[in-house]
Each structure stands twice: as structure tokens, then as C-alpha cells.
Amino acid sequence: DGGITQSPKYLFRKEGQNVTLSCEQNLNHDAMYWYRQDPGQGLRLIYYSQIVNDFQKGDIAEGYSVSREKKESFPLTVTSAQKNPTAFYLCASSIQQIGRGELFFGEGSRLTVL
Amino acid sequence: AQKVTQAQTEISVVEKEDVTLDCVYETRDTTYYLFWYKQPPSGELVFLIRRNSFDEQNEISGRYSWNFQKSTSSFNFTITASQVVDSAVYFCALSEVSRRNTPLVFGKGTRLSVIA
């Protein structure tokens, strides 16, 4: 089945550690996105990518990094510089240009910093 | 800057009642898209509808209907005869595409609880 796969679903991290969240899609979509969701805050954009080897910062990129070496993959690294990393992270993709098409979402990764 | 406001944080209704979720947006662009998504307890967002700024026709899909009014910058969502399975968080979102394509900006969401 086509879709977006995020892993791990749950992740615990100690303070000061970097952690990488995986996002893989087999929908042949060009654009991919990372959003962060906090209770009562809605979804906030971290990074997005229109094509391979290119990505742009979103509204809350500080403390995060991404790469887009393959069309299917858009991993997100939460670095130790991120002050409050505990959150629910959602990866998405879209077939059309940024903003013009609906997003298809993965099931999310819940990160807890201990 | 574009902005989406969902003033209702939480709504509770009894099954079979109708319920309307409000969405008000701000944009200076003449061309934009509006979206609604549903997030059930499982966490994955499910796309419900996309509407472009030039299409003000209301839309109905089963028990769901959407009312787009540019004059009031609103894109409200109504569920008729609500069911327990409608319980979820609902998000309204906006993207601008006139000058520079922008990713979707989401409202803070409205949590709907339908009680049997």
C-alpha cells in the first residue's frame, strides 16, 4: 500500500542527545514536510522540501536539521540545541507544488525527553 | 502574514446533533487554498476538503458540509447528525500561492467530542 511511514512511533531521549526521526514515502511525491504538534498549539512547520537536495526552514527550525538525499526519504534530527523537544512530530508529503495540494500525513512520532 | 483562527477549543455535542466548527483566516494574497483535516485519536491527519479562493460554492459530502464566505474570511465546517466516530480534533489550514507558494499554516484545532 502507498503511504508515509514514520519511525519510531515512540521515542525516549535523554537531555543532550540528538535523535533522528525517520520519514519514508512511496507515493512518488516531490514535496515533503515536518510539522510539530503540541497540545493546544496546532501544527507548526519545522522544515519542508520541494525537491531532492533542497529544503527550506519553516517557522520553528531552530534546534532541528533535515536532509533530502532521496525523493522517498526526509529524516528529521532533533538536536540537543532544541530547548523543548518533547512533542508529537508529523511528516507529510504532497504531489503538487508547495501549498497547492493536500498533504498526506504519516502516523507520527512521539518524542519524550527524560 | 497568513493566519488561521479556530476560536472554539473544545466542543461537546450529543449524538445526532448538528455541529459547526468555525474557521477564520487572514491573508493578503488574492489566490489561496483552504483545507480541513480530521485527526482521530490514532494521530494521523486525514484530509477532508480543499477549496481555492475563486470557488465560493458551498460543498456537501454526506453528513459534512462547508460554507466558504470571502466577505467574512470564513470557511466553516458543519457535521449533520453527528456520530461518536466524528469525535476527533479538526484543523483548518491555509496556503498562499499568488506570489510565492507557502506551505500550509494550520489553526490550533477544535476538539469535538460526540457523546452517545
Word description of this protein:
Chain A has 114 residues and is an all-beta fold. Chain A is built from no helices and eleven strands. In chain A, strands 2, 4, 5, 6, 9, 10 and 11 form a seven-stranded mixed sheet that branches. In chain A, strands 1-3-8-7 form a four-stranded antiparallel sheet, with no helix packed on it. In chain A, a hairpin with a 6-residue loop joins strand 5 (42-49) and strand 6 (56-57). The mean pLDDT of chain A is 93. Chain B has strands at residues 3-5, 10-14, 19-21, 24-26, 32-39, 46-52, 59-61, 64-69, 74-79, 88-96, 105-106, 110-115. In chain B, strands 2, 5, 6, 10, 11 and 12 form a six-stranded mixed sheet that branches. In chain B, strands 3-9-8-7 form a four-stranded antiparallel sheet, with no helix packed on it. In chain B, strands 1-4 form a two-stranded antiparallel sheet. Chain B is globular. Helix content of chain B is 0%, strand content 53%. Chain B has no helices and twelve strands. In chain B, a hairpin with a 4-residue loop joins strand 8 and strand 9. Classes of the chains: A mainly beta (114), B mainly beta (116). The A-B interface holds A 33, 35, 40-45, 48, 58, 88, 90, 92, 97-108 and B 6, 9, 33, 35, 37, 42-47, 50, 91, 95-97, 101-109.
